[in-house]
Design a protein that fits this description.
about 200 residues; alpha+beta; Glutaredoxin; Glutathione S-transferase Yfyf (Class Pi), Chain A, domain 2; 2 domains; 4-stranded mixed β-sheet; globular; binds glutathione
Length: about 200
């Protein structure tokens, strides 16, 4: 059976949500952050050399990186293509761009804002991160438009990572200028599969 290594609190709940949407059976192993450093416990390094989450194990495969995990899970468990277009066409290329955009581009400025906030404000970090946050969240809101999901009227694999970024922006108090993104997040987090993920992953 597939195993997900889930670190609280962080992005792996969004992979658990995907597993619930797909109806895949899985074992969940939970880890807690060190309350002082907020880093993952050393046990995660016994699973994967990077010691980060999410990590999945499936049929002898050990896989990290949430975008790659999403792609793998959809390839294997979404045979009727409910959560993404077929590989190779233009719709798939655009979908892949949005799938990797979250971790590849949106996360860094959010991390800088997190560090700046923890430092009680930091001019150098904010000087870079503030316009980048505005650039990326303006871009995401522009793409979303009046749609329910990032690529239109149905949820795709790209929505899991984008929802994580939007939720992180919300936690950092950065979402106020983007009411449609707040609605988007609320819509996604109110899905029954997300409620099941929370029930499973958060005691
Ligand atoms: N790009 C990776 C990032 C993985 C990552 O940094 N995960 C965080 C949790 S949200 C983590 O494990 N942090 C603990 C640490 O670095 O000590 C992905 O998409 O999975």
């Amino acid at each position: 059976m597939l195993t997900i290594h889930h670190l609280r609190i962080g992005r792996s709940i969004f992979t658990v949500w995907l597993l619930e949407e797909l109806g895949v059976e899985y074992d969940l192993v939970e880890y807690h952050r060190n309350p002082e450093t907020m880093r993952a416990p050393p046990e995660l390094r016994e699973i994967h050399p990077l010691g980060k989450s999410p990590v999945i194990e499936d049929d002898g495969l050990l896989l990290s990186e949430s975008g790659a995990i999403t792609a793998y899970l959809l390839n294997k468990y979404d045979s009727d293509g409910k959560f993404g277009p077929d590989e190779g066409d233009a719709a798939w290329a655009e979908y892949t761009q949005w799938l990797h955009y979250a971790e590849g581009s949106v996360f860094v400025p959010l991390l800088l804002k997190l560090l700046s906030t923890r430092a009680g404000g930091h001019a150098l970090l904010d000087g870079f991160a503030d316009p980048e946050v505005a650039l990326h969240f303006g871009h995401i809101a522009g793409k979303l438009g009046d749609n329910d999901f990032i690529l239109g009227d149905r949820i795709t694999g790209a929505d899991f990572g984008i929802t994580y970024m939007v939720s992180m922006a919300e936690r950092l108090g950065l979402l106020e200028p983007y009411p449609t993104l707040a609605d988007y997040m609320a819509r996604n987090l109110s899905r029954p599969a997300f409620a099941r993920a929370l029930e499973r992953a958060v005691e």
